Amino acid sequence: MQTADPKADTHSLLEDAQGFIFGTAMCAFALVMLRDLGLVTGQTAGLALLISYMFKLPFGWVFFAVNLPFYWFGYKRMGLKFVLKTFACVALISVFSEVFPHFVSFETLNPVFGAIMLGFMTGAGLMAIFRHGGSLGGIGILALYLQDATKFKAGYVQLAFDACLFAVAAFILPLPQVLYSLLGAVVVNLVIAINHRRDRYIAM
């Protein structure tokens, strides 16, 4: 199997900037749809959404705050450059997710169509962010850190966290919204699983 040329994965500052702006804008727009439908998602974004729903707090501020404890794990696991890129992506999501609703609203948004489309957009956004060596922080960083420390697979840590998150959501949200949320999460993970190929490129 042909491996990627390492030189092909070197990006300029401008290329990283456009990649992060595109990726975070796509994810933020997906979050606008998600919140309009009253759905949740996985990882720290899902945790921030549940907190914002329960306490009527702005999602952007909550998302920024819940990610703060995880930067230390990112620094220990992947270095300062990764942490700075991740911090920038989290900050952009936090800002975009609060600004975008002032420019768009949905008179009609079918929950099944919305869940699928926001899954596609989130997957595409995350792919762009990963491609340029960043992330949206949170549980993914902690999972990799725990994998190094304990050999417990990172994927299982993320799966366990999401299972707990959706279990809590089932007590807060109506069942149809939880099911639509699961549909969106499945689409996101399928997009990443199919397209995030290390044999085609190297990502953090």
From TrEMBL:
The keyword Transmembrane helix applies. Pfam families: YitT_membrane. It is a multi-pass membrane protein. It is found in: Cell membrane. It comes from the Bacteria. The keyword Mitochondrion does not apply. GO terms for cellular component: plasma membrane. Keywords: Cell membrane, Membrane, Transmembrane, Transmembrane helix. The chain crosses the membrane at residues 12-34, 46-70, 82-100, 154-172, 178-195. This is Putative transmembrane YitT family protein.
